[in-house]
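User: Please predict the structure of the protein below. I'd like the answer in structure-token form so I can feed it into my own downstream comparison script.

Assistant: Understood. Taking the following sequence of 223 residues as input:
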Amino acid sequence: MINLLSNLRIAVPETIYIKDPESSDLGKRIVENSILLIDEIGFDAFTFKKLGAKIGSNESSVYRYFESKHKILLYLTSWYWAWIEYQLVFATHSISDVELKLDKAIEIVTRTIKEDSNFSHINEIILNRIIINEYSKSYLTKEVDMENKEGYFVIYKRLITRLRDMIMDINPEYEFSASLASTLVEGALHQHFLKDHFKSITDCNRSVTPTLFFKDLVIKAIK
């Protein structure tokens, strides 16, 4: 199993990139340092010129992999949701009890992130901060409908569908399973943001985690 995980490759929709960054050392450095730079200066201030300077290369080399910084953000967010999905599937595949399975899935989606040694060029803790702070910028655009048709958000939607199905396994009569599943995923990001920045408007803190809140919310909603 350890060998299986060490060979695991997170698949991102090919339409997002020009050249697969996983195919070369330069591509991996672009991804690695994009994460570090966006975390350092924010996505709005992030440019290919700054990224090129950080990796010691011309910005033209970045354009060989991605046509815009928006596509880099789409790549990073897709990679993140695929990584969350693989953890969810791996952690729940052997659980037959439907309530325990959903409980574990909620934990995976809402917990505080730890670094995964299987992907040495990606710091998942820093990437998680980017998802919390910047994810909405990947889809709050004029092009969102076109990009949705192109499959840019297929992994994110697939993760929510998995959660929806787990909710329906417990209560197939519950009318709002997709809305609850998407609220779970988006709400977890929001509660992590609030507990770090707007502490007065959330009950989540060091002892009350977003996981506790969402386990309580989801189970009470569907029972």
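That's the full token string. Confidence is low (pLDDT under 50) at residues 1-7.
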